[in-house]
Write a structure and sequence with these properties.
alpha+beta, 5-stranded antiparallel beta sheet, 31% helix, 4 helices, Muramoyl-pentapeptide Carboxypeptidase, domain 1, single chain, disordered N terminus
């Protein structure tokens, strides 16, 4: 009986050590959530998003948001914003990344979006923000109560969620 009790105790102890040895994974966003999404402090919401590029998730509202960043910073014209990550957006992305000391690979991932997020600021209170481009251009974005980000775009300025899987703006 004593051997059995010792074996059970050792098994329980080993299991507990195994649980303690496994580090907790940090909370992070996932493209599989379908949207740019965050929680807690809004300043770190974009630092775990992406990737998207000409070959990955290349037609979506998230691409439109990225194109608006490129427009606000002077790398695209407003008429270039079409929700499609084509050759023009790829070239502009590489120039934008290079100018900021990032790897100019044309892929918008966590580092690129994190750098872009440094240009976000609060507009009129919680949940309302704007991207302040390098020139005189800016655009608005919002974060809903559930953490999903959205923005207005197009002639009707309808607010749409920043989805990785759909392009629902009028300009798309």
């Amino acid at each position: 009986m004593r051997t059995r009790t010792t074996a059970v105790a050792l098994t329980v102890a080993a299991a507990m050590l195994g649980v303690l040895a496994v580090p907790a994974a940090p909370a992070s966003a996932s493209v599989s959530q379908g949207y740019i999404k965050g929680s807690g402090d809004w300043r770190d919401d974009w630092g775990d998003e992406g990737p998207f590029s000409a070959s990955t998730r290349s037609y979506s509202n998230v691409v439109a948001m990225w194109q608006m960043i490129l427009w606000a910073d002077g790398y695209l014209t407003r008429s270039d914003v079409d929700c499609r990550f084509g050759p023009q957006t790829t070239a502009a992305t590489k120039r934008w990344q290079s100018a900021r000391g990032l790897v100019a690979d044309g892929v918008v991932g966590a580092k690129t979006l994190s750098r872009a997020a440094t240009r976000l600021d609060v507009y009129e209170g919680e949940g309302w923000y704007y991207y302040d481009g390098a020139g005189s251009n800016l655009f608005y974005v919002g974060r809903q109560a559930d953490g999903r980000w959205d923005m207005p775009l197009g002639p009707d300025q309808e607010w749409e969620l920043l989805s990785y899987t759909s392009a629902t703006f009028d300009v798309c």
